[in-house]
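Example (one chain per record):
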Amino acid sequence: MHRKPVVLTGLELGSCTTKWTADYLSQAEGSKEVKIHVSAVPQMDFLSKNFVYRTLPFDVFVRRAAEVKHKEYFLTEDEKYYLRSVGEDVRKDIADIRKQFPILAEDVHIPEYFEKDQFFSSVFRISSAGLQLWTHYDVMDNFLIQVTGKKRVVLYSPRDAPYLYLSGTKSEVLDVDNPDLEKYPLFMKAKRYQCVLEAGDVLFIPALWFHNVLSEEFGVALNVFWKHLPAESYDKTDTYGNKDPMAASRAIQILDRALKTLEELPEEYRDFYARRMVLRIQEKAYRNDYG
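Predicted structure:
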């Protein structure tokens, strides 16, 4: 079965699509403190950490995120803001809008495309206009529900992983529109898929599909993740939905040990047996019918 991204329109999402103005959000959840990302540049890079974490009262944060120029700021007067809700204890608790933003949760109807016991997390997101997040993949299926504002989403198939210069779950290629092809020559081989989400649209992002998100306007979104695989497949310490499945982690550890063992051989032999290992992996594990 081919699992591909799709934009769903016209779904019943509740009153959030009409109610969630900046004024309403500020009033509904008030001055509770939230931890946010603040960036002096539009393209946020998780690998180089070109942003800072700060804490603000929620209503102050919403007002600032909706502005283009700021009278009060941390870094620069045109800095960008981003909220990605987290659990009470980020090491143990998942993000769940019903717990972190219970008043707003009452306004949302989450599309029922999965069983209740498959639910993993519901991540509340608010972005300044112009903010762009790094390209990454998640290990669970998810809906990106664009409640207000407009987002451009660029996606790449899991099959194009060899061209994305990965560091963990994230791509080193920050600027997907004007990539540095001297530094990342293989990136041009990656096939780009793109969609623009208007308010009320829902994007289904299958697990392992890479995505890069640009907020074209100030906007509010809800990301809902669920367990596509049996529950025991996932790392129980994962609160973000981005740790590789247990079997994949074990396989990578075994491969690392195998590569270490190859170092006992002279270079000529190491090269020969490494190539045989690659062929064996391709024969045994690659899909032939990948779309």
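Caption: The mean pLDDT is 95.
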